[in-house]
């Protein structure tokens, strides 16, 4: 309970942005689910809080879409883990989603600070 | 990996079965939690605390698992199982709908399959002989135009020797046959067949052999082939009987072989086959045989007909006294075997198809209404994001569940129905090839496929509707606006009523025919009369005096039995389906030229026959003991003969020529009495002019004993058998039965037709009423608001009642009008089955109209009552 306030200034993820973050994370190579969660948090300087549970539905949805693929491998700690990697379709999808995101951010920025 | 079936099975009862994917997701999450906890321990947390924190960060593990799992969609079989459970829950919630639909399907599939199976077995399936298309029957054509007159053995021999169109041409004749065994004498149905018979049909023996050409030689020893059933019953099914001598008709005959089980000639009951040895002599014999022949390969029927016509013409020229103006007809065996039942079976088939159509319309109606009811549910589900195919899938499963249950019940009905229909035919009136009839899988598949197809297509209507139109509109209307199907529903109801009207009129006409037949006076009084047929064993009674005496002796004994008031004999019993006829003309007129002889029916009777049968003597005297061989030949005639031969004259004392002997001198008879007309050939047939000869003066080998009793006739049966045994222990009896049974059997076919068509008509009527009731009930439900408004602005309950009843009667009226017109057009196809009624009998049409309106009013009443009960406050608040 004492830890709760620490998260106060972190931002809850918008619907759909999680997919984009996962795809971006996988650009640098295969990772397992837990690793993806860590990377998202680290890359956003701990601002973006991914509810770890919500990672998995997203991962499986992306896999079903054919954007990512998975494979069971052994970690450096000799444990079985499921590694996800980007497919060709996923790379294309990432590019599209990323440009859409950028347009959205620009539009939001304009809307929030009217000239 | 589990296979899907196993998985679906394991799913019963508890939640979902675990799949490989479930395991994977679980392992993934387990790894995640372990990894997170490990990191936290590295950062210095106590293991338990680290684990708890990892869980807290992760969220609800169970939920994550479920949601992740859902990303993959469900397995098809899981969907099916879920839909099936849902379907049965839905149906359980509306038991009326489920019951009516399943019942309709079951009745339609069951009745259609059962009757179609009978029709298929009797009419459509080829005869159970190799190359049945090449089997034909050759008949004589009489100068009076009977194309299928029976054949004389003399003409047969000439045909056989001259005709080139046939591979084999065989002669046959049914004859009661006396079989003498260790347990006494018995008579069975025998078939006398020429040696070519089995080769013509192309059927080999079960045991031993079939006759060769030499067995048919006039000088060959008598021989016989046993039917399988008789061999089992009387010879214990022992192979040793082949080659043995058995006493057949008093003559030791060699058993050549045994036929396979089920072997029979279409339409003729035969338990054993006596090999004929036809002899060529000056006389051509009586025309009392039929033939069967196998056409040579590649010989068409027309060619055989042309050849036979030419041969008959030559025979007429060679022997004008016997053959002038006689011809020959070639008929396909299949057509002849099924010809007499074909119209009836086709009418019934039409009826059953009507029932099937009504059932389909009914199911369509029911499902369409349900579609309307569920439009809102479907719309909501589409709005909530359910994929369209899921809805279609679910509705298809629902329809299939209905169709499956209905079809299964229908199958049971069909299996029960076929024997039931066949049992309606009396044993003495065999349906051709009835023994071969069994439920056909193809027939079942067609009917079930049709009903289920209709169900499936219509069952998916709601899903289709849910996809159309603007969702918001549909939602706002709450499904109630979806009454666009109203016209389609009305049309279906009208169609149902129309078909039902046609069937009920058909049934009404047949029922009236049957009533007329029952009312017909047969010309004798059958009640308390017992009849028994027999063939006097030919070898024992070659002598004419003995032949006549033995019958008199038996009758004398019977008259002495207490409870017997009269006894007599006739050679062929009235209404038993057989009659003799011959040339007959007035002797006081010029002899008619060959082929111009008017002819008459002949019955050979003993004194006492008229009183035993209750046939009135109109004028003159009965036959008596004076009329014996050597005395003046006398005859009685019936009223029809008097009308035809002696209009306005007194026939008594006049002399008739009756061609009942080869010796012309023995053919002159003096008329001593006139008797009442008897419908010998059937209650539907006008009496034929008939001459009655004395059995003492023209002794017959065939005798039907007739005994009038004071008590129940069956009680005299034992005495009758005992009397025959006492007079001649080697003389058997063919059948002993009450005369009323003979009369009933003679109208078995019209009764059967009326019962079957009546059954189908009743079924159609009930289904049409259900359809009408359903449509009105649904309409009332849909219009609750309208009714509420009407009541609110002052409509009286009477007006509301009128509103609904009016709708019901309007639909019925439309169906009735079309149905009556259709019936007028169609019932002429019934005319062959009618007796004493025209196909447009006004009473039947009027009666059916009244019945339909009454039934429709009854079916409309319940929905109308419900409409009257609508509370405007509730109905309006509903919105």
Give the mean pLDDT of chain B. 84
What helical percentage do the residues of chain B reach? Answer: 40-55%
How much of the sequence lies in strands of chain B comes to 5-15%
What sort of overall outline of chain B do the alpha carbons produce when their principal axes are compared? elongated
Work out the count of structural domains of chain A. 1
Care to count the β-strands of chain B?
Answer: 22
Would you give an account of this structure?
The complex is a heterodimer of chains A (115) and B (879). Chain A has helices at residues 17-26, 33-43, 52-65, 88-112; strands spanning 11-12, 31-32, 48-49, 68-74, 80-86. With 115 residues, chain A is of the alpha+beta class. Chain A has one domain (9-112): Winged helix-like DNA-binding domain superfamily/Winged helix DNA-binding domain (Arc Repressor Mutant, subunit A), CATH 1.10.10.10. In chain A, strands 2-5-4 form a 3-stranded antiparallel β-sheet. Chain B is α+β, with helices and mostly antiparallel strands. Chain B folds into 5 domains: 20-74; 94-125 and 341-482, no CATH class; 143-325, no CATH class; 486-522 and 741-879, no CATH class; 538-729, no CATH class. In chain B, helix 14 runs antiparallel to helix 15 (441-459). Chain B is elongated and about 140 Å long. Chains A and B meet through helix 2, helix 3 and strand 5 of A and helix 2 and helix 4 of B.
Q: Features of this protein?
A:
heterodimer; A: 115 residues; alpha+beta; Arc Repressor Mutant, subunit A; three-stranded antiparallel beta sheet; 4 helices; 5 strands; 17% strand; globular; disordered N terminus; B: 879 residues; 5 domains; eight-stranded mixed beta sheet; six-stranded mixed β-barrel; 28 helices
Summarize the structure.
The complex is a heterodimer of chains A (115) and B (879). Helices cover 52% and strands 17% of the residues of chain A. Chain A has 115 residues and is α+β, with helices and mostly antiparallel strands.
């Amino acid at each position: 309970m004492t830890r709760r306030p620490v998260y106060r200034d972190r931002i809850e993820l918008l619907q759909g942005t999680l997919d984009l973050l996962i795809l971006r994370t996988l650009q640098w190579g295969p990772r397992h689910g837990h690793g993806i969660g860590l990377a998202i948090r680290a890359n956003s300087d701990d601002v973006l809080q991914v509810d770890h549970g919500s990672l998995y539905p997203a991962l499986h949805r992306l896999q079903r879409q054919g954007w990512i693929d998975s494979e069971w491998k052994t970690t450096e700690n000799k444990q079985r883990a499921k590694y996800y990697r980007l497919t060709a379709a996923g790379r294309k999808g990432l590019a599209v989603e990323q440009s859409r995101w950028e347009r959205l951010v620009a539009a939001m920025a304009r809307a929030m600070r009217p000239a | 990996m589990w296979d899907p079936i196993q998985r679906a099975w394991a799913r019963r009862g508890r939640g979902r079965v675990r799949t490989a994917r479930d395991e994977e997701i679980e392992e993934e999450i387990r790894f995640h939690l372990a990894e997170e906890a490990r990191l936290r321990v590295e950062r210095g947390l106590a293991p338990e605390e680290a684990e708890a924190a990892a869980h807290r960060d992760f969220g609800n593990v169970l939920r994550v698992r479920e949601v992740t799992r859902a990303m993959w969609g469900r397995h098809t079989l899981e969907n099916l199982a879920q839909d099936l459970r849902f379907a049965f829950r839905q149906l359980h919630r509306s038991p009326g709908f489920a019951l009516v639909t399943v019942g309709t399907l079951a009745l339609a599939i069951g009745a259609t399959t059962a009757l179609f199976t009978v029709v298929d077995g009797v009419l459509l399936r080829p005869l159970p002989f190799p190359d049945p298309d090449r089997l034909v029957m050759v008949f004589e054509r009489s100068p009076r135009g009977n194309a299928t007159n029976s054949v004389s053995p003399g003409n047969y021999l000439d045909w056989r020797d001259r005709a080139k169109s046939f591979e084999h041409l065989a002669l046959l004749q049914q004859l009661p046959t006396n079989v003498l065994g260790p347990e006494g004498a018995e008579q069975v149905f025998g078939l006398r067949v020429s040696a070519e018979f089995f080769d013509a049909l192309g059927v080999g023996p079960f045991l031993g052999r079939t006759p060769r050409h030499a067995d048919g030689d006039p000088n060959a020893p008598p021989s016989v082939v046993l039917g399988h059933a008789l061999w089992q019953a009387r010879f214990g099914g022992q192979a040793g009987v082949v080659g043995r001598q058995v006493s057949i008709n008093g003559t030791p005959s060699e058993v050549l072989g045994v036929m396979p089980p089920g072997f029979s000639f279409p339409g003729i009951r035969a338990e054993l086959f006596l090999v004929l040895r036809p002899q060529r002599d000056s006389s051509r014999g009586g025309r009392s045989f039929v033939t069967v022949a196998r056409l040579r390969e590649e010989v068409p029927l027309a060619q055989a007909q042309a050849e036979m016509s030419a041969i008959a013409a030559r025979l007429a020229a060679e022997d004008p006294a016997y053959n002038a103006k006689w011809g020959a007809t070639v008929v396909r065996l299949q057509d002849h075997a099924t010809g007499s039942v074909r119209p009836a079976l086709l009418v019934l088939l039409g009826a059953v198809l009507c029932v099937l159509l009504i059932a389909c319309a009914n199911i369509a109606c029911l499902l369409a209404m349900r579609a309307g009811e569920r439009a809102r549910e479907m719309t909501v589900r589409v709005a909530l994001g359910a994929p369209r195919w899921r809805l279609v899938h679910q509705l298809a499963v629902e329809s299939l569940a209905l169709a499956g249950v209905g079809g299964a019940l229908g199958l049971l009905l069909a299996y029960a129905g076929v024997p039931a229909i066949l049992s309606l035919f009396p044993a003495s009136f065999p349906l051709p090839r009835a023994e071969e009839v069994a439920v056909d899988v193809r027939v079942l598949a067609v009917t079930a496929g049709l009903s289920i197809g209709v169900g499936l297509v219509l069952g998916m209507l709601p899903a289709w509707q849910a996809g159309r139109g603007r969702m918001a509109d549909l939602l706002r209307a709450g499904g109630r606006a979806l009454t666009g199907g109203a016209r389609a529903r009305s049309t279906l109801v009208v169609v149902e009523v129309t078909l039902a009207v046609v069937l009920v009129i058909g049934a009404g006409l047949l029922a009236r025919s049957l009533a007329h037949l029952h009312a017909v006076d047969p010309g004798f009084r059958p009640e308390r009369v017992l009849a028994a047929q027999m063939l006097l064993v030919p070898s024992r009674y070659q002598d004419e005096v003995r032949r006549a005496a033995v019958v008199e002796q038996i009758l004398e004994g019977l008259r002495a039995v207490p409870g017997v008031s009269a006894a007599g004999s006739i050679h062929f019993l009235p209404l038993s389906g057989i009659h003799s006829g011959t040339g007959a003309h007035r002797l006081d007129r010029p002899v008619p030229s060959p082929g111009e002889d008017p002819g008459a029916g002949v019955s050979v009777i003993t004194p006492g026959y008229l009183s035993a049968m209750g046939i009135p003597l109109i004028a003159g005297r009965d036959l008596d003991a004076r009329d014996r061989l050597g005395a003046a030949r006398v005859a009685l005639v019936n009223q029809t003969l008097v009308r035809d031969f002696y209009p306005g004259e007194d026939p008594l004392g006049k002399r008739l020529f009756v061609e009942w002997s080869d010796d012309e001198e023995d053919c002159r008879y003096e008329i001593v009495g006139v008797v009442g007309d008897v419908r010998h050939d059937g209650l539907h047939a006008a009496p034929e002019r008939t001459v009655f000869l004395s059995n003492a003066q023209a002794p017959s080998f065939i005798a039907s004993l007739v005994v009038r009793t004071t008590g129940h006739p069956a009680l005299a049966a034992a005495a009758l058998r005992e009397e025959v045994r006492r007079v001649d222990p080697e003389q058997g009896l063919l059948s002993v039965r009450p005369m009323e049974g003979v009369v009933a059997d003679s109208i078995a076919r019209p009764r059967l037709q009326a019962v079957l068509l009546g059954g189908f008509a009743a079924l159609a009527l009930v289904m049409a009423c259900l359809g009408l009731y359903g449509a009105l009930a649904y309409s009332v439900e849909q219009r609750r608001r309208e009714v509420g408004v009407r009541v609110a602005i002052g409509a009286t309950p009477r007006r509301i009642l009128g509103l609904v009843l009016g709708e019901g009667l309007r639909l019925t009226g439309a169906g009735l009008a079309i149905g009556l017109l259709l019936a007028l057009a169609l019932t002429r196809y019934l005319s062959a089955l009618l007796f004493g009624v025209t196909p447009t009998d006004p009473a039947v049409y009027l009666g059916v109209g009244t019945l339909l309106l009454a039934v429709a009013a009854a079916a409309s009443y319940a929905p109308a009552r419900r409409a009257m009960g609508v509370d405007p406050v509730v109905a309006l608040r509903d919105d």
